[in-house]
Amino acid sequence: MSLHAVILAGGYGSRMMPLTTRTPKHLLPIDDEPVIAHQLRRLGAAGVASVTLATAHHAEAFLPALGHGERFGLHLRYTREPEPRGTGGALKHACAGLTLHPDDALVVINGDLLSDHDLAAHVRAHAHAGAPLATIHARPVDDASAFGLLHLDGDRITRFEEKPAGAPAGFVNAGTYVVSPSLLDLIPAGEVVSLERDVFPRAVALDEGVRVYREDARFADIGTPAALLAANLAWARDHVPSDRPNATSVLLGAQVAPTARVERCLVMPGAQIGADAVLTDSVVGPGCVIGDGAHLEGCVLGDGARVSPGLRLADAVLAVDERR
């Protein structure tokens, strides 16, 4: 069996605006590396040798940032959708150039997902289950109303229920899939198709079926500025180097005046924070300039935004290059 992977990275990142005006959300930072670089390292550690990155929006940005995968210990190839085709259509398009044998396996990951689950064990569970059409990472939650609830008979999925009312507890789809090449036969070429809403529900009725790999592991959907900030703060807490004792913020190549106070913030490269400025719970994009004595709370600043000295802002969103 050969193990390949496809990362679905074609989304527009609308919920992440204005940070995605110039940068795809998958290349936004978690500490000093893009979100997708953390995924590539996990795939390499799990034994994946070949990864296809399925891109669309800002597709030209990925190769300069990631190269061909050498530093992650794998080979990285790129595909670009001519138009949005959903997660299923993107997977079909990405696999068109691969030579897959019936006993191979494909790891499929949404490109804005961070998960600490044991991916190698997930792959083994797929093989031990007789290589069903798909094996989905399932994690337990107390409230499934914001997720896709999985109805189970043992480890076999019998039904998918999207965002059920009534806040039931149960196992939900955690966004990492190990699939058999035969799943691709259920995806019509050139059409807009969702894995979650179209392909997997159809697959549960077939003999090979869809299984779950259960693991309660840390999981984050990096789809909003708040989620990006939370993921960075969590990373800082877990990986504080000896020369960065204050992990209340993540400051990536920014210039911060000694008298400024920055708490629970993500400040991206090239940003400048002036004397006596106070920033809390904010995301500051690349190249922003925060004037002396400015106060920001719960703000999101797009690339190159500028805040005047002494200005106070709360829960504000500044567009790319906006001046206040």
Automatic annotation (TrEMBL):
Q: Which InterPro entries match?
A: GMPPB_C (IPR056729), Mannose-1P_guanyltransferase (IPR050486), NTP_transferase_dom (IPR005835), Nucleotide-diphossugar_trans (IPR029044)
Give all residue intervals belonging to the Mannose-1-phosphate guanyltransferase C-terminal domain. Answer: 253-316
Q: What residue ranges carry the coiled-coil annotation?
A: none
Family matches, as Pfam families = GMPPB_C, NTP_transferase
Q: Which domain of life is it from?
A: Bacteria
Q: Where is the Nucleotidyl transferase domain?
A: 5-234
Under CDD domains, the record lists: NTP_transferase
By sequence similarity, the record places it as follows: Belongs to the transferase hexapeptide repeat family.
Name the record gives this protein: NDP-sugar synthase
Species of origin: Dermacoccus abyssi
